[in-house]
Amino acid sequence: QDQGWRTTTRRHSLTVMGIHWLDGFRWMLDDEPVSVVCAVRSSPLVHVDGDTEAVMQASFARGTEVSYVESFSYPGREVDTVVIGEKGSLRLDEDGLCHWAVDGRGTPEVGRRPNLLGADKPEATFLSIDQFLQALETRTAPSNSGRDNLRTMAFLEAAYRSAEEGQAVAVSREFG
Question: Of 29, 129, 122, 17, which is closest to residue 72 (Cα–Cα)?
């Protein structure tokens, strides 16, 4: 159950947590979304003014399709991310990152990398702060600039506009 200002916002699920995933999809794919279709709803199990559930499908410029589901009413803490690609797949869960690389014969090679949760979370949390401070010291653009964040906000706005209009919506290129 959320607390504070987030409980009174009309746009909740994608604004509170989804925004990080939308930004992450853009970063992982090194690509921009071109259109999105989204539906949101509010669960009576969560005491907030806005939506608590979101289902979204986004199409990216180079042809990748991303499906995203967010639920604040689910009582568990699991996060499961699956990426299915032409040369293999990735699965990110509480146990870390697992990858399946397909060799020339179609045989999967499985590997696992430890996660950055628990005792390792501080390292994961502060890596981006360190990158920002390095950008200040070297007078270079940070990897996560304000202009870049505006692109993620345009993605978020398109998702909510799609939910309101009940149809696919183009993602604004205004901030490109």
Answer: 17
